[in-house]
Amino acid sequence: HPTQKPEKLIAKLILASSKSGDFVFDPFFGSGTTCVVAKKLNRKFSGVEQEPEYCQMAVKRLNRAESDRAIQGYHDGYFWERNSLADQKQVKGTKNETQTIVGLFDERYS
Description:
Layout: H1 7-17, E1 23-26, H2 33-40, E2 44-47, H3 52-67, E3 74-75, E4 78-79, H4 85-92, H5 97-109
Parallel strand pairs: 1-2
Antiparallel strand pairs: 3-4
Helix pairs in contact: 1-2, 2-3, 4-5
């Protein structure tokens, strides 16, 4: 049953395939990562899990998502890679955020 998936990965999938208010279904609910991320991204959700202990874990995570909507590696509509805090601060302090982000992308990955 242990198949860990980071919220950031699930967020990319949900954002690429749905809009706010859409319905997300997870037929292999596990600890609820997909539904937690769906909730944080303002999607309706449902899931199926046969193991009671995983269901209990998922309920706790969904309750925490009520007050903590943060998704590690995703902020203000942008996905960030590890060790990029300096770049994030640089972008936040600029007037034209999109231009700076494109510049960062071009420098790093070209």
